[in-house]
Amino acid sequence: MAVSVVVRRTLKVRHARSAASVFITALCAGSAAAALLLILGYVVREGITSVNVPFLTQVPHPIGVSGGGVANAILGTGITVGIATAMATPIGVLTGVYLAMYGRGAVASSIRFLSDVLAGVPSIAIGLFAYAVLVAPFKHFSALSGSFAFAVLMLPVIIRTTEEAIRSVPITIREGALALGLPLYATTMHVVIPAARAAITTGLLLSIARVTGETAPLLFTAFGSQFWEANPSNPMAQLPLQIFNYAISPYPQWHQQAWGGALILIVVVLFLNILARAALRSRTSR
Amino acid sequence: MTPSPGDRRFRGITAGVGETVVGSERAAVAAPQSLDVFRPRYRAGDRLFSWALTLSTWTYLGLIVALFVVLFAGSWLAIKSFGLRFLVGSSWDPVAGHFGALPFIFGTVVSSAIAIVIASGVGIAAAAYLAEFAPPLIARPLAFLIELLAAVPSVVYGLWGLFVLAPLVRSVIGPAIQSKLGWLPIFSGPIYGVGMLTASLILALMIVPTVAAISRDFIESVAVDQREAMLALGATRWETVRRVVLPAARPGIFGACVLALGRALGETIATTMVIGNRPAISASLFAPGYTLASVIANEFTEATTQVYISTLIGLGLLLFVVSIVVNAAARILMHTVLRNAEER
Fold first, then answer.
1. CB contact, 8 Å: B46 with chain A?
2. How, if at all, do strands B25-28 and B19-22 pair?
3. Residue B59: its chain A contacts at CB < 8 A?
4. Separation between Cα atoms, residue B69 and residue A255, nearest integer Å
5. Considering only CA atoms, which of B103, B105, B100 is closest in space to residue B89?
6. Number of folded domains in chain A?
7. Residue by residue, what is the 3-state secondary structure of B145-212?
8. A214-233 as b/e, with b when 16 or more CB fall inside 10 Å?
9. Are A242 and A253 in contact (CB under 8 A)?
10. What CATH code would you report for B85-343?
11. Phi-psi bin for B282: left (phi > 0), alpha (psi -120 to 50), beta?
């Protein structure tokens, strides 16, 4: 009798402990999610008052002159990210295809390993690299050097997602196309890559989302500007850079502009992330 | 038209054609050696395609090599003039020619260490909840929100840290800690708001999703029978997780934490905005500090002399090498788990 009482009591303790641990872990997960909502809430609350038509259509005004906006910074970020995507996509997708289709041996496995490692290299180090290659020799800051840094940041993401995407295409599809007499390049370009298109698109969108919010490598590459600029060989305004400069300035009026810029940036980046997920889902449901 | 056996590209193509996939294992079946003989007019296209693949792959490899070479060459002047002495000097006064990087190394290591301690606790718990305890109806949106936390740009974290968290640390969190634990040197001194603690908290928030998402994958990959066996023996759900699931996933979870540590070490903009940017080693977590990445961000465009620029690139090289070591360690850890799982 006594033994069963003890067992029952320890059982009660054990169940209580189990319930408590479920509660505590739930609290941890909940607080992380709550932090996101808290940050989003602040950005929306503080930023929404700054975002209006002049904010979206004008260039920055000097301090003391009210108004002004981030239109040139939005354009600059668009151009810089656009050029980076154009540079990184062909190299990234082709290297991914190479790894998926011929990827064996020391070269392939070292590329895979280096990609994983490169994905974790601080973006500021990549910025220094871009500075040394494209700014220092010309003694001139340029949006192009920013795009180059972004492209280096995008490559590992594109390569690994492309490789995974191509690998997930059933080998029978490839064999079927080859059996019908298609040459290998046509099989790859017209059969395998289209079949993997959704997952490749997801990787591209994620890499674009990642660099759109990047600030550190731009400090000494694209550098920023107060004016309209569309020539990539010149310094160019960048939205994240503009937010950074406004935020660390001593002027409340510029802090307000920083919140407005942050709202636009976060909406764009989260939209790209959700779009990336949607692209993947449309494939899996098919 | 038979290619020579030494032709690497041709071997590549036939290997691709003859390749077949059985489960996750790839096995080469007998490659049709003479495929090209039947379709000579396709040869040009296939060869061009193969060249494009090879070219882009080597471009990429070249880029990675160039990254290392360029950073090393850029910091050569500093290495030549100071040796590795500048890594241990504690005085940073570029105008007077003093380049001691110790305050930055200290700031980087301390802020990242505190961040990873907080983030691994919260992140692993969150992962355990999402993978083991939460009903799907809650787990899915919760996991989605935590993953989006990783997507928030660091400049937005910095902005929020500077205008929301720093004042909170100055007026609420700081005094509360100090009233209880003020006798500890790490919680002594004036509270500025911006400083080491604020930076650590922001970093922790930024790396929680990395820990949580990757740990969750590894927890979910633990075989179901192990859980069932434990439950059948009468263990509670917590005991199952604590004694079986977490130990089985441990190397992977550890890898996730190392990966997150790498992110914290290299984070630039958010840290720069909230750490206070003062090159001094202080015992107090409320005091301002400085990190390697922050000093590059703040001073690079204002660096006047060649040695100054070279020293900053040298700090970048240090950051680069450390991040490579940390990331390589993380990947190797996670890789061993995956291989073990496949063998099982």
1. yes
2. antiparallel
3. 91
4. 40
5. B100
6. 2
7. HHHHHCCCCHHHHHHHHHHHHHHHHHHHHHHHHHHHHCCCHHHCCCCCCCCHHHHHHHHHHHHHHHHH
8. bbbbbbbbbbbbeeebeebe
9. no
10. 1.10.3720.10
11. beta
Residue of chain B minimizing CA distance to A261: B156
Closest by Cα among A280, A88, A248, A268 to B153: A268
Contact A33 B159 (CB under 8 A): no
CB contact under 8 A, B70 and A133: yes
Tell me the CB-side half-sphere exposure of residue A108, using CA atoms within 13 A: 14
ipTM above 0.90, yes or no: yes
Cα angle for residues A71, A74, A79 (degrees, 5° grid): 125
Nearest CA in chain B to A11: B236
Closest CA to A162 of A99, A109, A253: A99
CB contacts under 8 A, B 82-111 vs A, are none
Residues A75 and A23 in one domain: no
Domain that holds residue A264: 55-285
Residue A82 shares a structural domain with residue A35: no
pLDDT tens digits, one per residue of A29-74:
999 999 999 999 999 999 999 999 989 999 998 887 888 899 999 9
One domain, residues A173 and A279: yes
Q: Which A residues in the span 144-173 are in contact with B, Cβ-Cβ below 8 Å?
A: 152, 155, 159, 170-171
Instruction: Give the domain ranges of chain B.
Output: 8-74, 85-343
Find out whether B72 and B317 touch, Cβ atoms under 8 Å.
yes
The one-digit pLDDT tens for each residue of chain B (344 residues) are: 344 443 444 333 433 443 433 333 344 444 444 454 445 556 778 888 888 999 999 999 999 999 999 999 999 998 888 877 778 888 888 888 888 899 999 999 999 999 999 999 999 999 999 999 999 999 999 999 999 999 999 999 999 999 999 999 999 999 999 999 988 999 988 999 999 999 999 999 999 999 999 999 999 999 899 999 999 998 999 999 999 999 999 999 999 999 999 999 999 999 999 999 999 899 999 999 999 999 999 999 888 888 899 999 999 999 999 999 999 999 888 887 777 666 65
B-chain CB neighbours of A92 within 8 Å are: 60
Residue type (1 letter), B320: F
Residue A71 forms contact with B (CB below 8 Å): no
Shared domain check, A160 and A270: yes
Token look-up 């990234």 returns A92
Is residue B148 exposed (0-12), middle (13-18) or buried (19+ Cβ within 10 Å)? buried
Distance between CA atoms of B174 and B165, rounded to whole angstroms?
A: 11
Q: Shortest CB distance from A98 goes to which of B19, B57, B70?
A: B57
